[in-house]
Amino acid sequence: MSLFLYQVKQACISLKQKPGFIFSVVSTMGITLGALLCVLTLAYVMLVKPLPYPEQERLFLVESTVVDKEGKQVFSAFNYRSLVNLYTEETSFESAALLAYGKNILVSQPSQPQVSTTYVTPELFELLDIHMAVGRSFGLEEQLNTYNPVAIISYDTWKNEFAGSTNILDEKLVVDNISFHIIGVVAQSFAEPKTYAIKHPLTDVWFPWDFNYISTERRKSSGSMSLDTMFLGRIVQELSSSQVEKIITPIVNLGWKDMVVDIPYFSPMNIKMKLTPLKNILIGDSENLIFVLIAGVLGLLMIATTNIANLFMSRAAEQQAQYSIHAALGASKSKLFKVMLTESALLMLLSLMVAIVVASLGFYILSTHLLQLLPRVNELTFSYYSFCVTGLLFVGFTWIFTKLASTVIDYKALTSQLQSGSKGGSQQVSQTKRNALIISQISIAMLLVFININLFVDAWKVINEPLNINIDNTIHAEMSLAPTVILSDDEKIQINKNIRSALQLLPQVEIVSLANGSVFSGGQGFRELRVKGSESTYPGSSRIVDENYFQLYQLELLTGDFFDKSDISDNNNVVIINEAFAKEIAPSGSAIGIVLEFFGEHTHTVKGVVKDFKLPDKLERENRLYFPGLSEASSLVIKLREHNKLSRQEFVSLIQTVTSEYRVQIFESDLKQQKKMLFIPYTILITTGLLTLLTFALTAIGLYGVLSYSTQMRRFEIGTRLAIGAKRHDLIKLIIQDNARSILMGISVSLLLFSLLFYGFNEIFISYVSWQLLPVFVFTLAVISTISFIACYLPLRQYINQPAIHSLKGSE
Amino acid sequence: MTTINNEKSSKLKIQMKGISKVFETEELETHALKNIDLSINEGDYVSISGPSGCGKSTLLSLLGLLDMPSSGQYFIEGQDVSDLSLDEAAEVRNKKIGFVFQSFNLIDELSVFDNVALPLRYDVERPTIETITKRVNECLELVSMSHRKSHKPNQLSGGQQQRIAIARALVANPAILLVDEPTGNLDSKSGDQVMDVLAELNKNGTTICMVTHDPRYADMASIQLKLLDGMILTTPVAQLAV
Fold first, then answer.
1. How far apart, in whole angstroms, are the C-alpha atoms of residue A280 and residue A286?
2. Which residues of B touch A812 (CB under 8 A)?
3. How far is residue A798 CA from its own chain's centroid?
């Protein structure tokens, strides 16, 4: 047997005697290294790894920004004609594709599911190198203005909606009364560019561009601007993005200026084209988040490393008798190092195996649950890069732990130990090292826990802040016109009223209100809102509501009156505003009776002021205005009686009894919508909560490890003190007092680190620093102190709760 | 029953009646001490000797309240200490028992002065600093170690360390000094010096009970007990065995 194999065998035999030690090392390092691997792979995918698309560095998203006379950006959107012109005529791009995102109901499927759809020109498949699992991609037959009714579905849609049918190419999809022949299924491996900026879920169905949702009128309209259309192009090799911007801006702008020459609002404005690398669009502002994640995991790793370093050093001290025999039999210092190295390597190998499992689990969780929050998580896999990192971690940590453990062993003392047969002078982890371990544990834990609890509390506040409206049993529904149907606004309003009446007759329905848009949507924004006679303008958003709206949501009236029926039927020029806006326009008096002016034309008198209500994902309360009336937008809110239900199917059937012109687009409870909007705070809450608990657990284990070893080293001293009359509380006091200095040092170091962080990253932290931090700090301090106290007490228990003779055994 | 009647004094310091100690494990029950009756009077110098495993150290642990008997009664200066809680036993140890261990058991981080003062710091009556200083100096004087009070134990020789341990055992004016193989870790010269100190202390009235396997030192005691298989074998001729 080779020496190497012999050493491995011996290390295995030796470790088998200590299952607790193996468990502590493998579980602690496995979990933390797994988290590190996961986060580092994520960082690599997000920040370093090229996009998985050919010549990705030349892929740009083209943005059309409308700027005012001063060159200030007013908004960013494409005019449809300009977009199509750019696509057909521009030569700065080697290849370019048009994209429009939408949502549709697959009426051909029994459950009529809502799917996320993307309308594209065929070039997208080449630009993003989309491979097909079945069938073909879009090609010449689906070019612009061919109106070929075909569709391509995603791999998941194929599996979920068509049960992976082998005859999928014989199937059809019916959307908006058009039957689309399925011509292909996208390969499972395709990672769709999912952007933070574009909150569109992954595409279920791709349709040719010609069928996009933009109506024929809007396609021709000069003034209509579209937000959800995109232009993705690969610029020609010879040009830079800024050169392309300079080339296309005047072309698009001149064309647009010609179109809007008769529209006074647009006439002074210009269009400016902006190219952003696709990679930047995908990453968005997630870069900071990934660095925060890395910092958090590194903190945890430091605590874990400290814990395990202590275990390794204690074990080395414990093993000294064996090592001294090895030394006496002629083992050189380097041979002993190799023995320790083999043990460490075995343990690290086991830990990294656990780490790989943990990281894979992390990849799965990230790609299934955090797609909304983090870019490119759908590309996460255990890659070549991850294996390299694993290898480095293996080498690094094996070396670190062996080196630290070997510092405990004094080779000269080892050899003399057996010769002299001395009972005393056993080697120990020095007090200085033990203190350093305690200080580092406490300081890192304080820092991590404090930051995490702060983020946790912030997220908790956002989640639990009262909405000031009652959304129990409320459902928001939106309908759209069936394709080819054209109705006047009056006709739409009449249908909406009929739907409201029909719903009101259902026994489970308490009240129905017609209002344009969900309660959580921003509503229509204003650029020209002012108090009549005043110069200053105010930002705000508005919605048109009927007389049931406030009652339905139980939105409290502070002053004035709610709308009455005549306000709605006569479209009276009144408005109800929220408290925040009332305070802004009438800081000291009443806002009732104040006349507001919109676009310099319409005026509305404030009739009532209602309590503020906060959007779940916004920090600030915004100005809200409610106008009386019936909107032509087919949107309504239903409040069900308690313990009653209304299914989407029931709702769809009811709509069909009232009108065949409508399709149900959205049918969702407000509570569900609220939860969706709170996704990020919930994610932060869970992540920071788990991180805090993990930090507490690791710190507790670590401190217990150090203090337990330290107490064990003092067993005879404790026995002697007991023998001369020390009571239990005397010894508890003694151990706490002796460790208090290190604990206080740890706390001081954490405060120092806070200060350094604060001065180093002032802009980030300045908004966090307030007196509100004090209770969080006190709480953190209390928990860490409690952990420290318990870690002091528990190892002592075995000595002070037994007759003193047990501690003195072997002291002679 | 073994009763020791020392002629110097008749005041009973220690009395054990029917003391037994059984160590139980899952498979084994070991009777370390069997029905021991023992009385020690003020001023006695008792040695306990016997072969390894005869129960010497167990008896000394029970005498010093470091362990509790399985059965029997134990009195120190008339106080029943057979069934005390851990903290109560600590208080009695602090006030009435002085220990001298084979391996000295001094605390390396503390100076000689603080080592000697330690029992007084655990005294529930919390003596003043002046009292502590006075008493510690007296005890160091008794063992001739006053000149070393600022030293740390590891700066002293084994014999010196044991003398410091004796000073520590004396500092609270205990009813009895329990000495466990005081010369076990010392060379013969230092051992003799330590034994001289003990003899001197006894001469001045200190009650001593010493465990030793060295017959030469056992003979220095006025009363010599021999233990075998957990039972007291012989008693000095001068004393009365009942």
1. 10
2. 101-103, 180-181, 184-185
3. 46
